[in-house]
């Protein structure tokens, strides 16, 4: 045995042991002190004792004051008991702040100016200090792996700079106080030391934090008034000119310093918050391989991943790497071990992505990419990373059978059945007194057998859009939203399970109502978060 130990370095031994099932890995830990040290030092068993069940889904709603937790009610015997109401966070429920990201039991909540990391299972949270140099033109992503470390990190990934827009010359024909607060064109403030006769384009390339705040004096603004005021000319602030009445200025292309810039750049520098240091730092990643193209190429893709749904693209943490779905139809794989990144093209191009509702996620076998074409064709690829050669392999190509999906809609709207999943804190209304309840034989969701729908249960066809709620991280199951009905679709068997109604009872009924982002939640009791309460948070008084 000693000769075998000498033949294998710790890294090689750990790479072998980590592939064993939990029972065999625990047996190997008892073989000798060296193997026990490798298993314990690399925390190889920890990933097997962490919860692997999806306990619910956090959902951000359009124009709704707070996220909601869609889940099956937890029984007293369930451990840990999950309360999806995040009212322990400052300002929760009053500030319209969304959940930004989720990673292995921790939530990232808030906005560009103020973010919190919270653990719903322990009801602990931490307020992140402001990133003064990071700007707000970024997407924030959370990285947490309790099998590797109890600490977490938050990455700010810069977005592509937008193309400059033409400046309406009428903005220079009016006193600053009389300008409209919300005009069709950007307002560029005059700065000291800048010639007022020279248009100032700096605001076009700055963060939203630098926008000018103007005072509305209530003066009447007439669109047809195109001549500069003589008083302004006498003061020498602006030359005496007449603004062209034609729309020729709209056709003038402003200078675009980013147009031909390679994207993503190398090195690519991000602002990263680490809970181990408690502060933000800059971290650079060097690209391996080619860029996706130029900024102009990336701009061909829409800023939002789809017209109706998520406002930003998702990211996935998998085996010490962060996979970020970026504008421009590519995935950026950040290696957190060696400080490099790779550009991986998505299996669909920019034009296809405009109509396919793309979604990046993690499931049983690694990193997944899903699309829904023509509303019914579900396609799912798995990223094959063998030998460092990144390629997408189409694993599922499913024509979503309408009858099975419409059965879920029929149960919701025709029979008005609640559950077995519900929205936490969903107060009852008088209109719902006649609602039926599905029988609850077990408080915990059986992802294999609970509430399976048959084709025969649907008696009419309805046209409804289908949207992703997310992937089950440990099983070949996807969560879908059909109208305001939640369902689970089993990829290997095409089995459909009815989950429940997703509409909050105090949510308005209009065409604009719907869900933005959603995050399947797996609880975790491990992780470094201070035992914070609202009274110790300096901004609590002003938030409430």
Automatic annotation (TrEMBL):
Q: Which Pfam families match?
A: F-box
Give residue ranges for domain F-box: 2-49
Q: Which organism is it from?
A: Eragrostis curvula
- Give the PANTHER family listed for this entry: F-BOX DOMAIN CONTAINING PROTEIN, EXPRESSED, OS03G0653100 PROTEIN-RELATED
Lineage, highest ranks first? Eukaryota, Viridiplantae, Streptophyta, Embryophyta, Tracheophyta
Give me the stretches of Low complexity compositional bias: 237-248
The record ties this protein, via SUPFAM superfamilies, to: F-box domain
Protein name, UniProt field? F-box domain-containing protein
Q: Which InterPro entries match?
A: F-box-like_dom_sf, F-box_dom
Region Disordered, annotated ranges: 225-258
């Amino acid at each position: 045995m000693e000769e075998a130990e000498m033949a294998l370095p710790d890294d090689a031994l750990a790479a072998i042991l980590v592939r064993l099932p939990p029972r065999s890995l625990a047996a190997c830990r008892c073989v000798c002190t060296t193997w026990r040290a490798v298993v314990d030092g690399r925390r190889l068993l920890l990933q097997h004792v962490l919860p692997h069940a999806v306990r619910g889904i956090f959902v951000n709603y359009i124009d709704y004051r707070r996220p909601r937790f869609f889940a099956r009610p937890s029984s007293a015997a369930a451990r840990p008991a999950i309360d999806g109401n995040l009212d322990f966070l400052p300002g929760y429920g009053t500030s319209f702040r969304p959940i930004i990201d989720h990673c292995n039991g921790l939530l990232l909540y808030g906005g560009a100016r103020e973010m919190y990391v919270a653990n719903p299972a322990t009801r602990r949270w931490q307020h992140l200090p402001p990133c003064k140099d990071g700007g707000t033109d970024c997407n924030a992503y959370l990285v947490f792996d309790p099998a590797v470390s109890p600490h977490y990190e938050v990455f700010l990934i810069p977005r592509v700079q937008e193309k400059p827009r033409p400046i309406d010359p009428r903005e220079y024909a009016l006193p600053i106080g009389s300008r409209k607060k919300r005009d069709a064109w950007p307002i560029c403030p005059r700065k000291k030391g800048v010639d007022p006769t020279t248009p100032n384009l700096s605001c076009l390339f700055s963060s939203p934090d630098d926008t000018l705040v103007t005072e509305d004096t209530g003066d009447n603004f007439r669109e047809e008034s195109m001549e500069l005021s003589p008083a302004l000319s006498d003061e020498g602030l602006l030359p005496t000119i007449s603004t062209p009445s034609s729309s020729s200025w709209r056709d003038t292309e402003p200078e675009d310093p980013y147009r031909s810039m390679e994207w993503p750049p190398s090195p690519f520098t991000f602002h990263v918050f680490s809970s181990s240091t408690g502060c933000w730092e800059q971290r650079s990643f060097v690209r391996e391989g080619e860029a996706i193209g130029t900024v102009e190429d990336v701009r061909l893709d829409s800023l939002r991943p789809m017209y109706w749904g998520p406002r930003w693209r998702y990211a996935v943490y998998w085996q010490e790497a962060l996979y970020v779905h970026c504008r421009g139809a590519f995935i950026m794989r950040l290696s957190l071990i060696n400080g490099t990144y790779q550009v991986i093209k998505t299996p669909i191009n920019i034009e296809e992505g405009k109509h396919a509702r793309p979604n990046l996620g993690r499931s049983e076998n690694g990193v997944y990419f899903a699309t829904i074409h023509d509303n019914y064709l579900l396609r799912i690829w798995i990223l094959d990373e063998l030998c460092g050669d990144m390629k997408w392999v189409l694993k599922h190509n499913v024509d979503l059978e309408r009858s099975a999906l419409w059965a879920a809609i029929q149960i919701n709207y025709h029979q008005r059945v609640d559950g077995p999943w519900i929205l936490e804190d969903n107060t009852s209304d008088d209109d719902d007194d006649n609602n039926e309840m599905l029988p609850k034989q077990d408080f915990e969701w059986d992802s294999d057998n609970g509430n399976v729908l048959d084709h025969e249960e649907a008696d009419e066809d309805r046209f409804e859009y289908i949207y992703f709620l997310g992937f089950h991280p440990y099983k070949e199951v996807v969560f879908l939203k059909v109208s305001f009905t939640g369902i689970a679709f089993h990829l290997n068997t095409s089995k459909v399970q009815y989950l429940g109604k997703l509409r909050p009872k105090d949510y308005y009924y209009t065409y604009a109502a719907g869900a933005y982002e959603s995050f399947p939640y797996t609880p975790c009791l491990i992780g470094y978060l201070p035992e914070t309460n609202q009274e110790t948070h300096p901004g609590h008084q002003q938030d409430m």
